[in-house]
């Protein structure tokens, strides 16, 4: 089965086709999913999510480095809180 090109879906952006592993994996870390069924309903999106996509992607990467099972649907505040809690534990 051919993996690329592949469609990905995002809760606030139009579906998009990805053509390579690197861009696909970066998108997944930034909250894109492989099926619309995995999208969070708009009313379930974190209202405190006021950060940019770049901020969120960086926070997701940091959370994963710390071993936090962060989801792409988490808002910036939730990511910041989880990271802070993990750093306090260290």
From TrEMBL:
Organism of this sequence: Paraburkholderia metrosideri
Superkingdom as given in the UniProt entry: Bacteria
Protein name: Uncharacterized protein
